[in-house]
Amino acid sequence: MRLSGSMILIVVVLAGFAWAAENQDRHPVYVGARVCATCHDGKGMGHQFSQWLGSKHARAYAILSSPKAKDIARLSGIPQEPQEATMCLGCHATGAHVEDWEKDDTFFMQDGVQCEKCHGPGSEYMDMAVMTDHDAATRAGLIIPTLQDCEACHLVKGSHAAIHNLPKLDMEKAIKRIAHPTPDAWKLTGTAQLPQPKNGEPEHTGAMACGTCHKGPAMGYQFSLWQNSKHARAYADLATPKAYDIAKERGLTTPPQASPECLKCHSTAFHLPAGGPSESLMEGVGCEACHGAGSKYSAEAVMTDPAAAKAAGLRAVNKDVCVGCHKDETFDVEAAMKKIAHPTLQPEPEKTVQYKTPLNLALSPNGRELYVAGEASSTVMVVDATTREKIDEIPVGRHATDVTFAPDGTRAYVSNRLDDTVSVIDVRTRKMIATLPVGDEPHGVLTDASGKNLYVLNTSEDSISVIDTKTLTEHRRLSASRRPWSLARSPDGSSIYVTNTLSRFVKFRTPSVSEVTVIDTERMRVTNRIELPGTNLLQGIAWHPSGEFALATMNRTKNLVPMTRLLQGWTVTNGLGVLWKDGHTDQVLLDEPNLCFPDPADVAITPDGRLALVTSSGSNRVAVIDVEKLISMLKAATPHERTHVFPNHVGKPTEFVIAHITTKNSPRGVLVSEDGKTAFVANALDDSVTV
Predict the structure, then answer these.
(1) What's the rounded Cα separation, in Å, for the pair 456 and 449?
(2) Over 154-180, what HEC string results?
(3) At 86, is the secondary structure helix, strand, or coil?
(4) Given CB 3.0 to 4.6 Å as the disulfide criterion, which of 239, 321, 430, 615 pairs with 50?
């Protein structure tokens, strides 16, 4: 039967769909370095696995337990244990970003930067028939890494360089140092057969089994201490030229990694034969080589009872255990045991400076106490507003960001950006009394005028949580724009204005458009979305006491102007948005000729409405604005000037900015006392408050 062209096309298309469906079902998973070793080890394969096992890559996870790793994490703003932080594990482990189902039982993340970190998950290309066909292997997911792939992790990072003080890695030399080519005349030699089990004896569980409990700070990082030791590399050392020379001197004819004579002191299984091994030779001298086969004492209930653990086979380690292998007369047993000591409790770390990083402030309704949210310290500092001294510090959630008081002054609310919570503080006792779950990365917090509802801005999910302050439960969630930041309540309490730091999504090559979200506090609804064209990074906001308008800090990003045209103006300009109660807006700059005002962060207005204070976190200044002059200038201008001239005119600020006040480093939040005589500014990078 002859097929028409259309029928042939259909057959080809269907075959293509079948091929796509088949390959779509085959999702590659990580199998672990020891599976790779079943082929890529031994002299016939250039000892590729052993070269990796002896490298720093194999210890990349373990090194995260070091004090330096903790210091680097701290400088990087990572509050977690480095061995638990995805940010650290991304370059110090394999498969840190995938789901558990994408890892075989043979895979252990503790093996650090394994083969599959560079070559891709191996389940689909590990078969011999695939691996020996380069094209088939690459189609199945085998990656041949390049120098650029290495540089994804081996970048110069300031937080790392500040701690380890090492020179920049020479990538060309590093690549040569870890090179592990397959010999031209390669041959699969495999590994030595494990010794015959002794009936009735406890079985080896393997170091990885020990590591499930003996890890982390609570256990003194015992497993990582072993991984960083020479014991863990004892098997890999048998692949070195030195090992071959020693074997030759002793008249051994088999490769060291296949010789029981060598393996009895370079592997757990040959050193202490047991009722059955569950781990390969490749772990080297593992925990059980010294402590005895662990199948009968490894259960937590047994291990936590010293007498029961001893009865179940846990051996006490002393010098007699060591000298069984370390027979050299020059071997100092006591010094060696101190070097490999791994007590459960680690020595107290040296105390380091704990920065506060104050971001925002709130003055109690009675004007007596100033609460300052400390991001780095995860605390709220309490300052006596009269004596201007810190009188208390209240622990809250991680990365305290904003703070506000209930109108009656009995409670304070603090957003904890890292924990996705709000802390409730009893002002009388200065104690945290509750923690409320909210949305992702809460920032600004503010109650309505009655204090019945608390509004929390969830910065990373573009929403606003409405909390019932009586039941301390969220009973509504409103939609904001992108990355809501700060709030301000109108003088009559009828509405709350919310700034959003990111522009709405706009069409390609069109100006950004940012939003101020308007909430009706009686109905707890969003009733308006005021647009500020050409702006982004709306942050601080404050209402004028007249209730006629609010002021908000902003940037005007010249994203449509080529960077080569810098002579015609800055790429980013900084200013204020004027938000009138009827919904229309104005924009003015705070940058002046030859004097920019970078990173305007917050704004406050004096109770009499005469002055506005704006912080510049990028230049350590506060701009003092004559509000009447600003408003008069706007009202005297034509609509064309207000829309097209003032938003980009660096000369206009000279008409209403009447002073600049120097602060300490990176001023952020600002507020003015009720009597209008004093202003407080939080200096984030100086751990201070300017008065």
Answers:
(1) 15
(2) CCCCHHHHHHHCCCCCCHHHHHHHCCC
(3) helix
(4) 239
What is the C-alpha to C-alpha distance for residues 523 and 517, in angstroms, rounded to an integer?
15
Bridge partners of 400, per DSSP, are 416
Separation CA 611–CA 136 (nearest Å): 73
pLDDT tens-digit profile of 312-323?
999 888 888 888
Q: Return d(Cα 428, Cα 410) in angstroms, integer.
A: 7
pLDDT in tens, 613-639: 999 999 999 999 999 999 999 999 999
Q: Note the pLDDT tens digit of each residue in 388-434.
A: 999 999 999 999 999 999 999 999 999 999 999 999 999 999 999 99
618 neighbors 633 (Cβ within 8 angstroms): no
Delineate the domains of the chain, giving CATH numbers in brackets: 26-190 (1.10.1130.10), 197-345 (no CATH), 480-684 (2.130.10.10)
In the prediction, which pLDDT does 421 show? 97
Q: What is the largest CA-CA distance in the chain?
A: 102
Two tokens at 413? 């609310």
Which stretches within 325-464 are classed as H helix? 333-339
Q: Which two structure tokens, joined as six digits, stand for 518?
A: 């308007």
d(CA 391, CA 387): 10
HSE-CB for 37 with a 13 A CA cutoff: 22
* Spatial separation of the C-alpha atoms in residues 228 and 64, rounded to whole Å: 11
| Separation between Cα atoms, residue 171 and residue 576, nearest integer Å | 48
Q: Mean pLDDT throughout 449-455?
A: 96
Q: How far apart are CA 305 and CA 89, in angstroms?
A: 34
Residue 87, pLDDT > 60, answer: yes
Query: Where are any strands of DSSP class E within 318-378?
Result: 358-363, 369-374
- Name the pTM for this structure: 0.71
Alpha-carbon torsion angle 563, 568, 573, 578, nearest 10: -130
405 vs 447: CA distance, rounded Å: 8
Q: Scanning the structure block, which residue is given the tokens 């394994």? A: 114
Cα–Cα distance, 88 to 80 (Å, whole number): 10
